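Table 4 source record.
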Amino acid sequence: MAIVRVGEVELDCERSGSGPPLLAIMGMSGTALHWGEPFLEALRSDFEVIAYDHRGVGASSALEGQLSIRALAEDAAGLLSALELESVNVLGISMGGMVAQELALSHPELVRTLTLGCTYCGGEGSAQAAPEVIQRLFEAMSSGDRERAIRTGWEMNVSAAKAADADAYATFLGIAERRAVAVPVIMAQAQAILAHDTSSRLGQLDMPTLVIHGTEDQMLPVANGRMIAERIPNARLEILDGVGHLFFWERPAESAELIRRLAAVPA
């Protein structure tokens, strides 16, 4: 990965693959590694994938002060400017999907197509994780047992069937060990998510848009995907049955194909 100066911060960024550019915006507590090689490899044959770590994550600048989704969207816009890219396909998942919404609303000229995965828009009718899910995650993160926290995060982010896949968990654990995200950064990201609300503005978007959501998403229930798709004109909704929050871990090839089809739609 390479360090790119974006205004007052530096972002750790990796470019791989060939084809039209695709900016991949990761979610809360995630790193560029969390896209997973099967999904990235499926994208690289058709896109130049640009994956980066948010401020406070990995080798990107340390987090100073509070975070907001709009500030993270400006980081994304600044990164595209620094890379001298006039417009890109944008993929955002979870918190990254919220960043992608703000990026598309504030800088529509930068976004050729928009893919919003396992995310939400805030406002009346949106749904966050159930209290018992939040409690379980909080207890695991507060336990001081890092492996317990990672295991719990894994189980909350994938379907029950995927959670039982020992090899997949070993890969997930390895990523967490290679590039840990500090708890204060995760808490700052969580606060930014709580303040996020684009619900009344999504009707302004007019670029080709795809919304992907799994039916077993415990972090952000599938109702959020339906709500977002209803509010964005002509958005396409793909509901993945039996799939959890990290849909691109569970169905990497199918997820990449959906994005590929969207990019092929005339603007």
